[in-house]
Amino acid sequence: MTRSKIAITLPKDQLARVHREIRAGRADSVSGYIARVLAEQEKRESLRVLLADLMEEHGEPGAEETKWAKRALLQHRRG
Asked: Is residue 3 domain-resident?
């Protein structure tokens, strides 16, 4: 992947959050943190588009499908 160097300006509270993430070991650097957040945003947007396409093709989920999905998510979270 080709990388480019840029300069950005952040509010102090956001920069403090980035530094906390680095100190906590959840990011290697400011650049790493920002790259991870952007990748997560791209993934969420991709999922939104997929969901919209599925609903356009198959319609909105009904009550039974919604109940099933909630149960499946709860089981997944419990491990």
From this structure: no
